[in-house]
């Protein structure tokens, strides 16, 4: 524990409460110490009791990492004056603080607490400003009371900040009476944390509130693993194990939860029986999305309107001959079939393994549609995939989120009531579409427009729950073309060849291609060292690439070979600390010139000047083909 007086705040994040501050202690004398951590509401001049541990930063040196804290009101006249003048209380600045303390002396804080009306005795303070000061004092007191309560039931300071930001003065009531709401409402709090808090406030282990929240948590965990629902027997068994309660109690609480529309129970085919079914349990958003997506696809497919009606009676021999003059290449028979299907069927799927010509087929479809002056919209689930789609087609592509103007935690700007202005919508890498996003996208496509899903189910799956592309391909209702021919140039790639070998149940081959290597390592520490050596030295030397042009993928966040440690090791190697070199600290992370960063959250309010945020973009000039 460290008892100190806060002298100044160096950095403070209002969202998280993370603070870097300088403090003085009886032992430090005139030397100030650095403390870091969540210090919501602490102001210069306050005495604080800090619980945490000492650590050392490679650049900033020794610092105290705060785990929790309590504040102690200053007792001296000088401390009170500085405390009030710090900006803590709206309406009191340094000069007014000096006047108030000069009038009331060491009794100042008691007067503000118990007799705020007496502040009018101070020259320059009238009734209106006095009332404002009293209100601000009560707000600050409420923050501290909430923080003390939350820390008392085992909530970390950083989570306490988030809880207070969400519920304000109602925080204590919510935590005491409805602790499992935290898992749904507060980012960073899951069921396990909420369960720990619930135990601290006395919620019984077998409380229906706890069991129902645990059932929803079990379904959420399944969704994180890609499942839109769980068969009821599996759900009951998993929830009983997670909650360590009897299965009969889980079954009873599940009945109550389903009756109150907390989950959806619905029969689905049972693959282990011939024609039988089994009850499936969904979280409500996934059931709604699955039902809506299926209905939307069927409506698009069967509507009489056709925004690409010009292709219904086309002379395809002439159309494909014209296309050859534009692309300079011949389409294979299955590629021709895909081109016709995409332009005549309102919903279609183009699939196939790597090297089979999906990209060239897409470009051919876009070229013909543009020749008829169609309004073309190109999208992909990720920014990288959208950039690649732009490069191969020559037409602007965007992410699905950007296309729909979908912001985190909000609704999209485009939906069934406000559809996109598009005749043809092409979605590349659609194996990465999860159920929720696919539903939002398909709802925004206008009646009569054509939707083309392009992707390979054996490549990257969605991060969210659902295998939309695989399920669409399994539904024989949706027209599709599967490309199977590997083109000669693709046969030179070890990535393409080995991908097809793996899909065929054969082991990959090594040493026969210049772009496919295996570096075995037995221990995660050795793996991390090998990755750093590959990025910093071996790959640049072999292929003439800069280290910053190489991307590292790892399947985990933690551990010696996880993303966190690899990022630290790569920064130490490629962008080490240099005296005098600029760097920026954000929380526990340090960013330096030369660091490679990923923007993980879109900020549409900071779009570059001149960048269009329109959901559809005009096709670039293209020679028209008018033959039939």
Your description of this structure?
Mean pLDDT is about 85; it is low at about 605-625. α14 (about 335-345) packs across α15 (about 360-370). Helix content is about 40%, strand content about 15%. It has about 625 residues and is of the alpha/beta class. It has 4 domains: about 1-150, DNA polymerase, domain 1, CATH 1.10.150.20; about 175-285, Orthogonal Bundle (Arc Repressor Mutant, subunit A); about 305-485, Rossmann fold; about 525-590, no CATH class. The strands form 4 sheets. Strands 11-10-12-13-9-14 form a 6-stranded parallel beta sheet, with helices on both faces. It has a 5-stranded mixed beta barrel with strand order 1-2-3-5-4. A 3-stranded antiparallel beta sheet has the order 6-8-7.
Could you give the topology of this structure?
Elements (H helix, E strand, L loop, with lengths): L1 E11 L5 E7 L8 E6 L8 E11 L3 E12 L4 H12 L5 H11 L3 H7 L12 H26 L4 H11 L3 H7 L3 H5 L5 H10 L7 H17 L4 E3 H12 L3 H13 L3 E7 L7 E7 H19 L13 H12 L5 H12 L2 E6 L5 H14 L4 E5 L2 H11 L3 E3 H5 L19 E4 L7 H9 L6 E6 L12 H7 L5 E4 L10 H10 L20 H20 L19 H12 L8 E4 L2 E4 L36
Parallel strand pairs: 3-5, 9-13, 9-14, 10-11, 10-12, 12-13
Antiparallel strand pairs: 1-2, 1-4, 2-3, 4-5, 6-8, 7-8, 15-16
């Amino acid at each position: 524990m460290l008892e100190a007086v806060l002298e100044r705040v160096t950095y403070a994040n209002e969202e998280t409460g993370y603070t870097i501050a300088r403090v003085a202690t009886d032992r430090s004398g005139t030397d100030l110490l650095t403390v870091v951590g969540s210090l919501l509401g602490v102001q210069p001049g306050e005495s604080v009791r800090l619980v945490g541990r000492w650590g050392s930063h490679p650049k900033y040196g020794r610092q105290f990492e705060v785990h929790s804290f309590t504040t102690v009101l200053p007792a001296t006249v000088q401390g009170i004056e500085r405390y009030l003048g710090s900006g803590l209380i709206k309406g009191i600045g340094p000069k007014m603080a000096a006047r108030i303390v000069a009038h009331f002396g060491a009794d100042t804080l008691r007067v503000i607490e118990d007799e705020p009306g007496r502040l009018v005795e101070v020259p320059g303070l009238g009734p209106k400003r006095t009332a404002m000061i009293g209100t601000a004092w009560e707000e600050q007191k409420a923050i501290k009371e909430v923080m003390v309560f939350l820390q008392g039931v085992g909530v970390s300071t950083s989570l306490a900040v988030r809880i207070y930001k969400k519920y304000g003065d109602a925080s204590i009531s919510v935590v005491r009476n409805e602790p499992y709401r935290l898992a749904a409402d507060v980012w960073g709090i899951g069921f396990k944390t909420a369960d720990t808090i619930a135990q601290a406030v006395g919620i019984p282990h077998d409380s229906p509130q706890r069991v129902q929240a645990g059932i929803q948590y079990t379904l959420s965990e399944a969704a994180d693993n890609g499942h839109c629902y769980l068969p009821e027997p599996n759900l009951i068994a998993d929830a009983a194990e997670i909650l360590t309660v009897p299965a009969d109690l889980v079954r009873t609480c599940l009945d109550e939860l389903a009756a109150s529309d907390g989950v959806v129970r619905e029969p689905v085919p049972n693959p282990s029986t011939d024609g039988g079914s089994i009850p499936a349990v969904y979280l409500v958003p996934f059931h709604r999305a699955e039902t809506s997506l299926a209905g939307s696809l069927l409506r698009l497919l069967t509507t009489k309107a056709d925004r690409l009606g010009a292709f219904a009676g086309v002379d395809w021999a002439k159309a494909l001959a014209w296309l050859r003059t534009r692309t300079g290449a011949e389409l294979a028979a299955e590629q021709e079939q895909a081109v016709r299907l995409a332009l005549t069927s309102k919903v279609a799927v183009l699939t196939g393994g790597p090297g089979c010509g999906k990209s060239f087929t897409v470009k051919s479809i876009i070229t013909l549609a543009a020749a008829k002056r169609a309004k073309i919209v190109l999208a992909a689930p990720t920014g990288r995939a959208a950039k690649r789609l732009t490069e191969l087609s020559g037409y602007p592509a965007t992410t699905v989120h950007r296309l729909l103007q979908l912001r985190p935690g909000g609704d999209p700007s485009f939906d069934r009531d406000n559809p996109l202005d598009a005749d043809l919508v092409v979605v590349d890498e659609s194996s990465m579409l999860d159920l929720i996003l696919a539903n939002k996208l398909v709802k925004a496509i206008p009646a009569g427009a054509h939707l083309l899903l392009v992707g390979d189910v054996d490549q990257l799956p969605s991060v969210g729950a659902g295998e939309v592309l695989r399920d669409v391909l399994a539904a024989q209702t949706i027209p599709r073309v599967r490309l199977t021919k590997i083109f000669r140039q693709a046969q030179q790639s070890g990535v393409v060849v080995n991908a097809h070998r793996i899909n065929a149940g054969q082991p990959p081959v090594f040493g026969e291609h210049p772009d496919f290597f295996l570096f075995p390592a037995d221990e995660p520490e050795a793996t991390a060292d090998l990755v750093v050596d590959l990025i910093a030295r071996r790959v640049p030397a072999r292929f003439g690439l800069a280290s910053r042009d190489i991307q590292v993928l790892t399947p985990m966040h933690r551990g010696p070979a996880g993303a966190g440690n690899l990022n630290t090791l790569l920064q130490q190697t490629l962008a080490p600390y240099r005296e005098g070199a600029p760097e920026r600290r954000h929380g526990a992370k340090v960013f330096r010139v030369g660091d490679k960063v990923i923007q993980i959250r879109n900020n549409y309010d900071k779009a570059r000047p001149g960048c269009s945020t329109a959901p559809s973009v005009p096709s670039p000039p293209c020679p028209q083909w008018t033959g039939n």
